[in-house]
Amino acid sequence: MKENNKIRMQLQCPMPKLDFDVITLGHGSGGVLTNKLLDSGVFDLLSNDILNERHDGAFLELNGKTAFSTDSFLVSPIFFPGGNIGELAVNGTVNDLAMCGATPKYLSLSFIIEEGLPVKEFWDILVAIKFACEKAGVQIVTGDTKVVEKGKGDKIFVNTSGVGPIHPKANISAKNIAVGDKIIISGNIASHGMAIMSVREGLEFDSEIESDTTNLNHTVIKLIDEFGGDIHLLTDPTRGGVATVLKEIAQSSEIGIDLFQKDLPIDNQVASACELLGLDPLYVANEGLFIAFVPEASADAVLERLQQDEKGKNARIIGSVVGEHPKQVIMESAIGGKRVISMLPGEQLPRIC
Where is each PurM-like N-terminal domain found (predicted)? Predict the structure, then answer.
């Protein structure tokens, strides 16, 4: 599915003929080469009325309470099964805004490019950004490009920042969490991190493991439309995975969390890859999932609604908030044993988002 989308994007956005094949330090000088690079790519491909002003900033119209978020992306390799660093950068900030109960509207986009990056790779990243923005319904309205010397970067780093108005029915806060709340995850865990690692380690399976990177804003807004304040908290388990996110919440909110291994959704091949590499899928990064805390009375209805959405079809209730063992996450294993879940103590997987 994603491979077909890649071919479609390439056909719709053929790379223009340029008189240079790689990006040089001159492309970051702010002069003629910089303008050639931006004119032949960023401004044409991502064109909109605000960006086309080419001002140092963007003039935006926003009403009411607004969410703001920023993130930087350093993934290696920059192209991976199911996506690349470009769409990852768009989806990452879009999803951070969605976790606030906001409708993402505008993004900034900044590149730090290492000298020698092939222009074809830069173009493919820009095309992915264009289509990710269209899917999410956001616009790139301002940005920046810098080029660093060979050996002082790693091909390309991307930063995106975004803003969007908070949904009028949204009341997303860890303060809303209460004993009895159910914890819902929107889909299969660990796919993104293992897609990256399968490439690095040369692992082969019956079918390719793909990153789950996608925008979640439309899915989240539908839930808030229907359930409003019953959505107590939303969070996306990116770096550090499900375990680290839940442990952070338990500590900061002084609650106990019971987690059930048998209910954790995971693709069989992803689970096999984790086992081969000796990795705990609870700590592997995700880029297309969210976790929701909802009242027990609403949990089944929220789950049913989420499973009707393509991006929530594998959603499950994975645990609950309890009054016992405050600040602790306790997981019951598939065979009935229990263990304490801690935060990721170090770097389990380097450079995955």
Answer: 56-164
